[in-house]
# Entry
Amino acid sequence: MSHPDCRPFPEAKLASAWSRSTQGCPVAGAAVVWAAWEPFQRGYMLWLSDTDWAYVLNWKDGVDPMLGTWATGGESWRWDEITHPPALTPPAGLYEPVRGFGFVWYYKLGGPTSQVGWATDVEKGFCADLQRFQAGFILQLSAAASCEDADGNWKVTDPAMELLFLAVYGDESWRRY
# Structure
């Protein structure tokens, strides 16, 4: 796919999710980064090590797990032990998110009453192929078995990690492919 006015070009393996109108041109080539993912009753949470940023992906109308709107946890999110939300007991088969996702979920989203609801699985770490654009990014589960995080530590993708290919667009929408 050729885009003469975009340099660098979108990476071929990620280009099918690219939207020039909502993402603009790539700002760099694709890179492998450490990431974390957690599914919820009506959304997902994603964290990327290269920016130390958490994203909340709400399902469209609370029912469509393939697209919706996104927001961030903001610069103030924390995963350390300084803040202690009250102990919660999730309903059977559901999970209370922990660390950074737990902070965003409880303090930024309202916890159990949040739009995303309770987690439906535990957080999983993975290596992601990531390409950033002027407005947004495209991310795909990487074929790399291990990758380096922002602190220089080597991490291994959780073997139970689901296949993941998604785009986050500058108009505050997202889509899974």
